[in-house]
Amino acid sequence: MSASAITVAQLLIGGILQGGFFALASVGLSLIFGVQRILNVAHGAFIVLASFITIQFSILITPVFHIDPLYSAALDFVLMALVGAASYFLLIYKVESTGFEAPLLATFGLSVFLEYVIANGLRFSFSSFHLTLIPVLDPSSGIGAQPQNQVYSSTSLLVGPILLQEPQLIAFIVAIAVIPLMHLFLTRTYYGKAIRATAQDWEAAEFSGIDVRMMRVLSFTLGSGLAGLAGGIFAFTNSVTPTTADTSLLPIILAVIILGGVGSMIGTLMAGLIVGLIMSGSDVVAYYVLTQFHFPTDFGLVLTFIIFLIALMIKPTGLFGHRLQK
Amino acid sequence: MSLEVANVSASYGAVRALWDVSISVSQGQFVCLVGANGAGKSTLLKTIVGMIPPRSGTIRFNGRGISNLRTHSIIRMGIGFVPEGRRLFPTLSVEENLRMGAPRAINNLEDSLKKVYTLFPVLEEKRKQKAIALSGGEQQMVAIGRALMGSPRLLILDELSFGLAPIIFDRVLSTILQIKQAGVSVLMAEQNAERALEVSDYSYVMENGRVVKHGRSTDLIDDPLVKEAYLGMDE
Amino acid sequence: MMALNFSVLPGKRGTISSTIVLFGLLCAAVFPLVLRQTNQTSLLLFSIYFVWLTLAQSWNLMGGYAGLLNLGLVSFFALGATVSGASMHAGLSLAPSILLGGLAGALFAVALIPTFRLRSDYFAIATLVIPVLMKPLVEFFIGTDFLVPSADITSAIDQYYIGLVITGFSIFGIYLLMRSKVGYALKAIGEDELASSSLGVNILLFKSIALVVGGFVASIAGSYFLEYIGSINSTIFLNLTYSLFPIFMVIIGGIGTFEGPILGALIFSVVNYSTENYFSGSTYDVLLFSVVIMIVAVLIPRGIAPSALALTKRITSRHSTKAVISQTA
Fold first, then answer.
1. Neighboring chain C residues of A44 at a CB cutoff of 8 Å
2. Mean pLDDT in chain A?
3. What ipTM does this complex have?
4. Subunit contact A212:B72, Cβ cutoff 8 A
């Protein structure tokens, strides 16, 4: 292979791996949005919060107990599932019947709150009395943090002439393991089917004797847990700041869930990979064709969103069939 | 089995839809609600199963007040509900739709399924098909089958004739009578008053959210006022 | 939307409210005259609140009256700011630059018309993503950093009056629009889209008008914001604040009402001003604000004005039934 062919292959494979992470980050929100039409704009903040939990784990727990910080992704799943359940009961449960706006605003407030807590902790001082409910989670003061005491972030594997970044590979493997599992859950188990039934017609579900509220709690909890899992792995692939969610993560997640067809797990996986490929593919184009135009480096992002908007206009139900809803 | 609805009023949105309605269904009875579109029949059924909260009045099932319970708990007490327009889960298969009607924990689930398939053999043939691919009559069978999966003591039917050819509707009705023979009480809201009065034991005539007349169906069918207003034959 | 039949159209209450607002604007116009000359720099404080008021007007027109759940108001806002910044840099003076910023927003709104065929929640998501797409495009075609040239920097009092004029025009422009044929059509669409379309109301046309006017107003607010803040860069497109705070204001005030955005923006401004002052030097205001947003969304999802009205209605109707009972007794 010529050198440039290797570069192209390198970029495209990197894109697919990156796409695996996009799918993993999106699958939870796709489930939540599919079941209850709630656009949880705090989903990105959930992912970032989980990243910082993993970073803190690597600083506080790993040196003492010698637990690999990668395993904290499981802890992130549990913790974010709890955060999700609490958010559902405190913020969404009461207002979800009033329409689309109130839950949206509530979760927007939540994302601002979480960003604040990550950057500043939850500390109060009254004259000489100091109370720290939650310490500052971001050790880098907003510059960008990564887990400590680990080698993943700097490790790569050489497969033939192609270099694979290890954390991206891990994210990819977790995505192609977890997402089909979610698909099986939704299509094979009672709770999965009851969740789909609730998504398709919640009144009919109640008439059939399904506890709709429980199905909504379940999907919100599970979706938030998946955000936690994605966040735990995200910490290794990127340097994270408290505002990473709004500026880069959430728009991509939204593009992925719409392209994949809201509520479709396998669709989300495919759409994640496609978005990863489009982004790296456009980088290739930008690198070889457009450099003379001085096009900005995030041309990949532009192309992704243009393709997303066109796809949305042509087929508003997503590129893949098999959706959760009618 | 007994259902007692006493002095119930309810609102649908901002509009008062039920005024002081009382009905009752006793063990083994086939009771019909007849009346024009918008008379409040459907609202009454939804109020009974807790989808619309009553403003006042009491609803008792087997002697227990149920007006504070949520719909799925009321259904789980032994009520099967077939909503207007069938409301199947379109991308779930026929069998999955049926299974959604059964509580997760029951151990005679396969028995219930077998009973439904005996009642509607065509559903067993099409058990793997998506519900959306069925004909209207078959969809109505799935809706009834789904309501039967929890082994209900009372079956509530909202506008069974909706979108069905008269001959199919007759066939569905005869199945309902079969179910009644097995000891299940039936409460049915129906716009097709003639057929409803023929098959039922007792009927309530509703108008503008009120019960305006009730009595044995055989008596109502000969009532001149009912004849004029609902059966379309004035003598 | 649920509160649409609230006060869109001229009624007694609409007339009273608009008179109060007009009076308020007149007071605001007289206000600098009573301030002592030395205090006039404090007028600069008001600029940001004029920006919020105008943005709330824009969003209420799109989201409240036309039912377009636009989550990307920042794309109009930031486009107005960047275009007016570029035109000032090119030598245009302040007023035409602000107007040009507004026109850019209106033009951009026209480009968005095809997205109307999306279902409302997909439309919302599309609008949330669009600013992210626009940032690199604006960087490529217009520029990254925008500075108000020294020739265009205005005195505090001029800035105050420019803001007041923009706010006044946006409030009463939209008020008059809603009293015109467009307003009646939008109200009909809001109550029953299917029925109005079968009656021959051109839904696409009237929603487009709302989006274009709303886009113009939001972009004007952005142009004025640049004048206030002095310089911005293209990352402003990624700032969700300018998309979501106006929605917050409209919702606390009462969505789809004349009073709603004004009331909401005033409440927002008072809370914002006092928390920023009280917690000056710390970041607690952000914390408090996030908590307030959550509490408002959960406790009064239908807004203060409609909730208060419903409450007074309930109280007065209780009184009248009591009166009837006592009369019959």
1. none
2. 87
3. 0.91
4. yes
pLDDT higher than 80, residue A285: no
Q: Comparing C-alpha atoms, which of A176, A252, A224, A218 is closest to residue A50?
A: A224
Task: Answer with the residue of higher pLDDT: B79 or C153.
Answer: B79
Half-sphere exposure of B41 (CA within 13 A, CB side): 28
* B102 assigned to some structural domain: no
Residues in a beta bridge with B32: B188, B203
CATH-assigned architecture of domain A3-314: Orthogonal Bundle (1.10)
User: What is the count of structural domains for chain B?
Assistant: 1
Helix, strand, or coil here: C155?
Answer: coil
Mean pLDDT of A177-204: 94
**C247 reaches A (C-beta below 8 A):** yes
B232 domain residue, yes or no: yes
- Rounded Cα gap, residues A310 and A278, in angstroms: 14
Name the residue range of residue B204's domain: 1-78+154-159+186-235
pLDDT-above-70 percentage for chain C: 88
Q: Which of B93, B96, B100, B139 is the best residue to mutate to test the A interface, defined by the most A CB atoms within 10 Å of its own CB?
A: B100
Could you please report the per-residue DSSP string of A49-89?
A: HHHHHHHHHHHHTHHHH---GGGHHHHHHHHHHHHHHHHII
CATH number at residue B22: 3.40.50.300
The torsion angles phi and psi of C76, rounded to 5 degrees, stand at -70, -45
Q: Are A90 and A106 in contact (CB under 8 A)?
A: no
The domain segmentation of chain A, as residue ranges, is 3-314
- Nearest CB among A94, A109, A302 relative to C133 is that of A302
Task: Give the distance from CA C123 to its chain's centroid.
Answer: 19
Residue C286: closest C-alpha in chain A: A116
Mutate to test the interface with A, among B72, B104, B157, B158 (most CBs of A within 10 A): B72
In the numeric block, the tokens 């869930």 are attached to A257
Instruction: Give the Cα separation of B6 and A292 in Å (integer).
Output: 81
**Closest to B89 (Cβ–Cβ): which among A204, A209, A212?**
A204
**Domain C12-303 CATH assignment equals 3.30.70:** no
Mean pLDDT along residues C292-300? 86
Q: Are A247 and A53 in contact (CB under 8 A)?
A: no
Distance between CA A262 and CA A258 in Å, rounded? 6
Residues 6+ positions from C33 with CB-CB distance below 8 Å = none
Give me the mean pLDDT over the A38-46 stretch: 92
CA B18/CA B10 separation, integer angstroms: 5
Segments in chain A forming alpha helices (H): 3-36, 43-60, 62-65, 72-87, 101-120, 166-188, 190-200, 202-207, 212-237, 244, 250-260, 265-288, 299-314
Distance, in angstroms, between A7 CA and closest chain B CA?
44
CA distance A128 to chain B (A): 51
| Contact yes or no for B217/B29 (Cβ under 8 A) | no
Q: How far apart are CA A117 and CA A140, in angstroms?
A: 14
Which chains have 3 or more CB–CB distances shorter than 8 Å to chain B? A
- Report yes or no: A246 at the C interface, CB cutoff 8 Å: yes
Instruction: Calculate mean pLDDT across residues B183-199.
Output: 92
Q: How far apart are CA A108 and CA A115, in angstroms?
A: 11
Q: Look at residue B42 and tell me if it is in a domain.
A: yes
Sign of the alpha-carbon torsion through B62, B64, B70, B73:
negative
How many residue pairs bridge chain A and chain C with CB atoms within 8 Å of each other?
A: 126
Which chain C residues are Cβ-neighbours of A108 within 8 angstroms?
240, 244, 248, 293
Residues of A in Cβ contact (< 8 Å) with B71:
206-207
